[in-house]
Amino acid sequence: MKKKDYGTDIIKYLLSAAFACFLLYFTFRGVKWDAFLEGLKSCRLSYIAVSMGAGIAAFWFRGLRWREILRPIDRSITRRAAFNAVNIGYIANFVFPRIGEFVRCGFITKNSLPETGNDNKDSFGTVKKKASYDKVLGTVVLERSWDMVTMLLFLILLLVFRWKEFGSFFVEKMWKPFEENLNFSLWWLLLGAAALCAAGIYAIYRTRNRFRFSRAAANICKGLLQGVFSCIKMKRKWKFFFYTGVIWLMYWLMSAATMSAMPGLDGLGPVDALFLMIAGSFGWLVPVPGGFGAFHFIVSLALSTIYGIPFETGLIFATLSHESQAITMAVCGGISYLDETFRK
Q: Can you tell me the distance from the alpha carbon of 93 to that of 330, in angstroms, rounded to the nearest whole number?
């Protein structure tokens, strides 16, 4: 019987705890504590607690929705693993923008069962997993694409029914600055990049049976496509749409609760909360760590442009909204990371 090496386990746990502290440091270093604490003094803390609770619920339902996409690939992925992976991905985004999407794929692959059969190893001798990294990454592409479509649908509905109130903000403050940056040379650069990608994919396809690198790249592309189209094999597609609705309902509740927490904004209604949710979503899309700065500016600009609220008051609301969710992400991400580390 092999004697257990407790020294190795202790080193592993210490390194994991140190990495968790490193992630927490990167998360909290951007929090504007002075403005956050100043905002807390003047608001109703019970509504902030509701907003943070809605955030945790959104993380949970996001994990459930992702699991539905993963089930056709590997039915052994648990709710706990999917939830932890989502939380760890969020906290990783505070270190480097969008890296969390790749990190959470790694955690799911680690929790996946190995493939059975004689041909269960790749060209490097590594045991293949049912939920291989490329397939899992494809499911993330699908999930994020659907979120983008959902957000655009909400935006279209808002502009169709409330164009007089909100149309000028999205046109003047968001679309026109974006359009001004799309100059002629940028379009040529994008077209050139697209042409290079197409040529590279075609070269990989033609040489996949001749070169080892091309064969490996073709397998990755194949796995990525299998992940993207895994939605076709979902047996309970209604759950995917139900979870999507609940996730965005929680996002709206986060916006409405934070809005109700501030004395100067508690007179606004449900449609106003939807508008601030959409405006804030654009802030989270900007590729900066955790949305720090971009979210604050866009939300403050929206409040001052549409409602005539002083920019400083809008900044307090944005800081309170963003930092409360950043703290929620950090706590959930830290707990999930430790849970994955110490779980046998």
A: 10
Bigger pLDDT: 111 or 193? 111
Cβ–Cβ < 8 Å for 329, 344:
no
Residue 75 falls in which region: left (phi positive, over 0), alpha (psi -120 to 50) or beta: alpha
Beta bridge partners of 127: 121
Angle (nearest 5°) at CA 193 between 187 and 198? 125
Report whether 167 contacts 160 (CB < 8 A).
no
pLDDT in tens, 277-315: 888 777 666 554 554 556 777 777 777 777 777 777 777
Please state, in angstroms and as integers, the Cα–Cα distance from residue 166 to each residue in 141, 153, 171, 275, 304, following that order.
30, 15, 9, 8, 12
Q: From 61, 96, 97, select the one nearest 82 (Cα to Cα).
A: 61
> CA dihedral in degrees (95, 98, 100, 101; nearest 10)?
-170
- DSSP output for 228-246: HGGGGG-S-HHHHHHHHHH
How many Cα atoms within 13 Å fall on the side-chain side of residue 71? Answer: 18
Cβ 255 vs Cβ 277: under 8 Å: yes
The Cα 108–Cα 100 span in angstroms is 12
